[in-house]
Write a structure and sequence with these properties.
The chain is built from 25 helices and 12 strands. The protein has an 8-stranded mixed sheet with strand order 7-6-5-8-9-11-10-12, with helices on both faces. The chain has a 4-stranded antiparallel sheet with strand order 1-2-3-4, with helices on both faces.
Length: about 750
């Protein structure tokens, strides 16, 4: 039965992995609303997810060895049905229950972690037990274990890679979170049906154990578990810094992380498939495992440095230094124009930027290392699987140890490594661990050679400033940076405009110093229109431009500013004495400012008092998770947290955002075509009254000290002849919601539609 079901099981497990990854991506989007989008909350979500997988692996391992083949298949079928049913209900549970009803009752991180663990445990436990029970199904003798279990892992991981790609480019853009979850549940149901068909076809075959005497002591299994823990730690640490650095190089949008994750998982799956065949040819699987893992981690340490060395002298260096990102839809338009032969000459230099930085460079950096990591999985199985009667337990224990190492990697990188050493320091740590693993797998003179190679790799790695200067396409003496687990903040001297400092968050241009422009308008408009803006909330710090404008009036007594990248304050402090940055010093010294390092939407939700003005600084709609600040639920939250006469302010990058705001607020005014102010009562715009406010000494001097003329800045938007659009009726336009942030995933080029 095992041999006959083998190919069938591998195909089913591929579909199972695909569904699991779609679920994971959808659940993470939902749960950040409940836990917050800051790095601590995301780490808690990821750790809770992996904890459930680990527990499921251990339970599945114990269970699998006690059941017949048919019973293990039934367990897998039941698990898939359970995962699918949970997935169908998860949008309601995570959004309608956790976020909308229970979020205010959970007041601490510990309580939040417990709730997340409890909610994620049922489906992740079922996911975790799948590998051990299927390992027992396909394995008859210990010598078969490495190849068969390795192929199971390969199929599941390749399915996960496919799931990451489909979720990113098809399911979320076309169906939203709920639609993606329905497709995942359909995949789980298909797995159950296919396994039922497989068992039905082989119903006359009985399961019999064929135990083979163990050739290893229990101590060797403990060593295997310990080393697999270490490789899980390094794999997760490498993944985190890869996603950060490669995402920064690509100037990531909503589609970037899923694409990079697909490359990462694809490498693991292909490596596991190759390793499943190789494992049959090598008797000393243990040493080969150590060698492959050592080489994998060493390449993980230096791959980014090698890629940057090549990119600095290529045409992509211009893009690395640029302010604006190329989003997915723009990339599709350029490629379609190139294919049709009607590409504009000015676009020719950018047509391959997106594919190179989202596919070619990630493949060159990640695929060799992840291929070797994946190839080690069946080799570890061969080293540890010496008794067919305990295949399930050993598979579950190994998987659990690897997952525990991944959990330690996520927590360690977040809490210790990135805040202390930055991404460059993590790469150096990987070089050390890779050297030790490689040396442990070698003998005599080859061990010395491994140590020498490791030292050479370590010394060639760039330091923190050198790494991020190369990623930003500039020289190390032209930037200020701060990196921790929350993200990367870089302020860079402009090469074209002397005296200008551009602000980058995770390598994407956000604002600039000196102040002036749309960010100043966003801050100045509401506080000058409001009769008495005493208490103000701002999401996003950037250069401090919007915040500076919101501090113009003496009536403003409190400004609460949330910035999710904590290092942003440190970089502003570093440049406050630079020429042209006098206004930065004013912002940093103002006692009315209360700076919050964390999720801005969560800050507004949990604030005990209401505000006169609530605003989010300008955010590109294609940025990852930007949909949480352009959705109906977000605007409803703003409306609920406003005092009488209060104003909700947002940048309006698309007509859909305007339609979403108008659906929530009875009155919406649009200034300059891009700034929307929503109110409950009609808002009257009196230019003479606004002029009188700007002429007050405090207001006038506030802007003048920053080198700005408030009259000249605001007159085009508020003065005589200014076009102020009043949205009286709801627009005939689809809106953004938390469950379907259409603008964030928008790919109109695929439908041959014009982008708004």
């Amino acid at each position: 039965m095992r041999a006959a079901l083998g190919p069938w099981v591998y195909g089913v497990f591929l579909i199972s992995g695909m569904s699991a990854l779609v679920d994971q991506m959808a659940w993470q989007r939902l749960l950040v609303l409940f836990a917050g989008g800051d790095v601590v909350a995301v780490t808690i979500i990821v750790t809770a997810f992996m904890a459930g997988l680990g527990i499921g692996s251990l339970i599945g391992g114990r269970l699998a060895d006690r059941l017949s083949t048919r019973a293990n298949v039934v367990v897998f079928i039941q698990a898939e049905i359970g995962i699918g049913l949970f997935g169908l209900c998860s949008a309601w549970l995570f959004h309608d229950v956790l976020y909308e009803r229970l979020v205010m009752l959970v007041e601490s991180r510990v309580m939040s972690a417990l709730v997340l663990f409890g909610c994620l445990l049922p489906p992740t436990l079922l996911m975790g037990l799948s590998l051990p029970v299927l390992a027992r199904v396909v394995t008859r003798q210990a010598p078969d274990a490495a190849g068969r279990i390795g192929m199971l892992y390969a199929a599941n991981t390749l399915g996960a890679a496919l799931g990451a790609f489909l979720a990113t480019w098809v399911l979320l853009p076309t169906s939203g979170v709920e639609g993606a979850l329905r497709w995942a549940a359909l995949g789980n149901g298909l797995c159950a049906v296919l396994m039922i068909m497989g068992v039905w076809r082989m119903k006359d075959v009985e399961n019999e154990n064929d135990p083979v005497a163990s050739k290893q002591s229990p101590h060797r299994l403990v060593v295997c578990l310990g080393v697999f823990f270490v490789t899980g730690f390094t794999a997760l640490a490498a993944e985190m810094v890869w996603l950060r650095v490669l995402g920064a190089m690509a100037k990531s949008s909503a589609h970037t992380m899923g694409t990079l994750l697909a490359v990462y998982l694809g490498g693991l799956g292909c490596g596991a498939m190759a390793g499943s065949f190789v494992a049959r040819c090598f008797e000393d699987a243990w040493r080969l495992f150590l060698r492959l893992q050592g080489l994998a981690v060493l390449y993980a340490a230096c791959g980014v440095a090698l890629a940057l060395h090549l990119l600095v002298s290529s045409s992509l260096s211009t893009y690395l230094a640029s302010y604006e990102p190329v989003d997915a839809d723009t990339a599709l338009r350029l490629l379609m124009g190139w294919w049709r032969g009607d590409l504009k000459p000015e676009d020719a230099a950018h047509v391959w930027t997106y594919p190179l930085l989202h596919a070619v460079v990630p493949l060159a950096v990640m695929f060799p290392a992840t291929f070797l990591m994946g190839a080690g999985f069946p080799l570890m199985q061969k080293a540890a699987q010496t008794d067919a009667s305990h295949v399930g337990w050993r598979t579950g224990a190994l998987q659990g140890a690897n997952i525990l190492g991944s959990m330690a990697g996520a927590a360690g990188v977040t809490a210790v490594l990135l805040p202390g050493w930055g991404s460059a320091g993590v790469f150096m740590l990987l070089a050390v661990v890779g050297t030790l693993l490689l040396a442990a797998g070698m003998r005599r003179v080859w061990r010395v050679a491994a140590l020498v190679m490791g030292v050479a790799v370590f010394w060639m790695l760039p330091d923190q400033k050198g790494l991020w200067a190369a990623v930003h396409g500039t020289m190390r003496d032209r930037l200020w940076l701060a990196e921790d687990a929350t993200g990367l903040s870089v302020l860079k001297q402009d090469e074209v405009e002397p005296g200008k400092i551009s602000v980058f968050i995770n390598c994407i241009g956000q604002s600039w110093i000196p102040y002036g422009g749309v960010h100043t308008l966003l801050g100045a408009l509401p506080v000058l229109l409001h009769e008495k803006p005493e208490r103000v909330a701002l999401i996003g710090l950037g250069s401090g431009d919007t915040l500076h404008a919101m501090l113009a009036r003496k009536e403003t007594r409190e400004v609460w500013c949330a910035e999710i990248v904590a290092g942003q304050m440190r970089t502003l402090e570093a440049v406050q004495d630079e020429p042209g940055a006098e206004a930065v010093k004013t912002v940093l010294a103002d006692a009315r400012v209360h700076q919050v390092a964390g999720d801005g939407r969560m800050m507004i939700l949990r604030d005990g008092e209401k505000f006169d003005v609530i605003e989010a600084d300008a955010l590109r709609p294609t940025s990852a998770h930007s949909g949480t600040l352009y959705s109906e639920e977000y605007f409803a939250l703003m409306k609920a947290r406003l005092r009488p006469g209060g104003m909700a302010v947002t940048w309006l990058p698309t007509p859909r955002v305007a339609a979403t705001m108008r659906k929530v607020f009875p009155h919406v005014l649009v200034f300059g075509g891009v700034i929307g102010i929503g109110t409950v009562e009609p808002l009257r715009v009196d230019w003479l009254q606004i002029q009188a406010r700007m002429d007050e000494v405090v207001v006038w001097s506030h802007f003048r000290s920053a080198g700005m003329d408030a009259h000249a800045l605001l007159k085009p938007l508020l003065g005589p002849g200014a076009v102020i659009l009043r949205l009286e009726d709801e627009l005939e336009q689809e809106t953004n919601t938390d469950l379907f942030p259409r603008d964030e995933w928008l790919l109109p080029s695929l439908g041959k539609k014009d982008a708004p």
